[in-house]
């Protein structure tokens, strides 16, 4: 029975869907010409991770400093991916004011899972950003 437990555990872990879902891998954030992208924001997320990182996309260049997001992107992002060796700092109000959070390299398919204060989360709450790469 003890040799069966590791096998069952391996099968159970293989059956769990990855938290990444349909989101790109941070190492794949590049433009068609091969130049680097610092982060990519998406306007769609879903309770099912496989349906996240969909819809409209906003690609952010390394060194981008946007205290005011374009009007169609203010308080719209609900999924994001930060490239390897990069960091995305976001603010909840225009002009780099309000709550702030730093997202390190990685995939964040549901910003609803990241707290913004006691009662809020970061889904549809990003109004300004700064992205840097090392």
Describe this structure as you would to a colleague.
This is Syncollin. It holds the Pfam family Syncollin. Keywords: Cytoplasmic vesicle, Disulfide bond, Exocytosis, Membrane, Signal. The protein has 134 residues and is mainly beta. The chain has one domain: Crystallins (Gamma-B Crystallin, domain 1). The strands form two sheets. Strands 1, 2, 3, 4, 5 and 8 form a six-stranded antiparallel beta sheet that branches. The chain has a two-stranded antiparallel sheet with strand order 6-7. A hairpin with a 3-residue loop joins strand 4 and strand 5. The chain is globular and about 40 Å long. The N and C termini lie far apart (50 Å).
The tally of domains stands at 1
- Derived structural class: mainly beta
Structural Rg? 17 Å
Task: Give the beta-strand count.
Answer: 8
Q: Per CATH, what is the topology?
A: Gamma-B Crystallin, domain 1
Helix and strand pattern: HEEEEEEEE
Which key features would you list for this structure?
1 helix; membrane; Syncollin; signal; 134 residues; single chain; mainly beta; cytoplasmic vesicle; Gamma-B Crystallin, domain 1
């Amino acid at each position: 029975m003890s040799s069966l437990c590791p096998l069952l555990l391996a099968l159970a872990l293989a059956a769990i869907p990855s938290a990444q879902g349909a989101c790109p891998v941070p190492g794949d954030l590049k433009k068609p010409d091969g130049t680097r992208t610092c982060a990519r924001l998406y306007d769609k997320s879903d309770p099912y991770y496989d349906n996240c990182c969909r819809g409209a996309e906003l690609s952010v260049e390394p060194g981008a400093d946007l205290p005011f997001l374009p009007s169609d992107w203010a308080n719209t992002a609900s999924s994001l991916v930060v490239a390897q060796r990069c960091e995305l700092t976001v603010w909840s109000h225009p002009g780099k004011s309000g709550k702030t959070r730093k997202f390190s390299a990685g995939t964040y398919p549901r910003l609803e899972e990241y707290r913004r204060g006691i009662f809020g989360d970061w889904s549809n709450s990003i109004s300004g950003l700064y992205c840097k790469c090392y």
